[in-house]
Amino acid sequence: MIALKSTLDRCCLWILATLAPEDTRDAVLGDAIELATDDRMSLWSNTVASALPLAALKFTALRWRDGLTVAGFVFAVTLWEFTVARQYSWPIAKQVLPYSPLSTAATCMAMYVMLYGVFALATGALIRIAKRAHWMPKLATQLLMLAALAPPVLLLMFPTPVDSVAFRFAQFAAILMGLFAGRERSRHRGSVATIA
Amino acid sequence: MTVLAAVLHAGDNAYGTSILDEIYERTARRVSVGALYATLSRMEKKGLIRSKLGEATATRGGRAKKYFHLTHDGQIELSRAIASLNRMVEGLDLVAAPA
Q1: Does the beta-carbon distance from A4 to B61 stay under 8 Å?
Q2: Model pTM?
Q3: Could you read off the pLDDT of B17-56 as tens digits, one per residue?
Q4: Rounded distance, CA A159 to CA A155, Å?
């Protein structure tokens, strides 16, 4: 067996595993390793030459309904920004304010970030359900996660008067934490279900 | 056409690496794994080939092989493509390829 000692080899295998569709992943990795074993084609050159065709192959696996789901989700993210996060962060902050040592603006911003954390948690749970029910291919769920991260990126590009880079990074972190909290639970429950 | 012919040449042992080796031996072109699987996947969708999962070996890092074979439609399509190519080059005054 090929000695996959170098970081470059591992990186190449990771790239191939990420790009290859699920039904051909094992075959692609196995063939790439076999070809590299006796220097018929190095892992590096195979990965460079395979990246585009594999990515194209993966995107063709996306169905119309996956595209619609992601588009619908982007719409939901936009709605959340304008009808929930911006509208409810101040009313919630008002409730928290007597117990908060922070300034009014900081408390309001914290509530806004928290609302995005809640949104990301719900998104993580949705992704978990979609994955377990095999409703969407892995690529669609990855796109969904990217869409969840869109608001802070867009707001960094088009800032509002209260924006600051640190604030948007806090929002970014809250979304990531929410998403991974939702997904981690799924992994844990999945393993318990498998054992059972 | 090249891939279909390589699958036929590889016979019962037609999986990724052996198909790539057949292509290299006969055309002196080294094709990447990704390009091969993208082509095989398209042909499988068209019903020209079928695949089945095979055994995993240590030389492949414990990864399973995916074997391919031509369907009846695939063989007809290959014959048709060869006939079309022959008709296209018929009567052309071609320079002989170096041996």
Answers
A1: yes
A2: 0.61
A3: 899 989 998 888 888 888 999 999 989 989 999 998 887 7
A4: 5
